[in-house]
Amino acid sequence: QVQLVESGGGLVQAGGSLRLSCAASGRTFSTYVLGWLRQAPGKEREFVAAIRWSTGSTYYVDSLKDRFTISKDNAKNTVYLQMDNLKPEDTAVYYCAALTGITYSAVSHYGYWGQGTQVTVSS
């Protein structure tokens, strides 16, 4: 029902910026909350940010709200994650996903996932 493809990851120095993209497709994708989640080596996957496609409402984990911004481009069917002032602890595989449960901050409530894109922040 929903296909998601991430891009934009790479290597960046601490203090730098990256913008990740998630191209969405499928007949019903626009009815979902679409999120960004990440998994650092040896750590559990965690919620980063989400956006309700139909309304544009956004949701963030409090610790990242001042540095990360989620947005969308309706014409391109794409969700973005702008990441500023990156820190080494931001190093992770970043995934976009579609919420199929009710709690946007719960990793297990996302039912459709992209393949992930690696973000590495050097110090």
What order do the helices and strands come in, and which of them pair?
Blueprint: E1 3-7, E2 10-13, E3 18-25, E4 33-39, E5 46-52, E6 58-60, E7 68-73, E8 78-83, E9 92-99, E10 110-113, E11 117-122
Parallel strand pairs: 2-11
Antiparallel strand pairs: 1-3, 3-8, 4-5, 4-9, 5-6, 7-8, 9-10, 9-11
Structure description:
- This protein has 123 residues and is mostly beta strands.
- Strands 2, 4, 5, 6, 9, 10 and 11 form a seven-stranded mixed beta sheet that branches.
- The termini are far apart.
- The mean pLDDT is 97.
Radius of gyration over C-alpha positions, nearest whole angstrom = 13 Å
Question: Which spans of ≥5 residues are poorly predicted at pLDDT below 50?
Answer: none
Structural class: mainly beta
Shape: globular
Q: Output the number of helix runs.
A: 0
Question: How much of the residues is beta strand, in percent?
Answer: over 45%
H/E element sequence: EEEEEEEEEEE
Tally of extended strands? 11
In helices, the fraction of residues equals under 10%
Head-to-tail CA distance between termini: 40 Å
Reported for the largest beta sheet, the result is: 7 strands, mixed
Mean pLDDT: 97
What's this model, at a glance?
This protein is an all-beta fold. Helix content is 0%, strand content 52%.
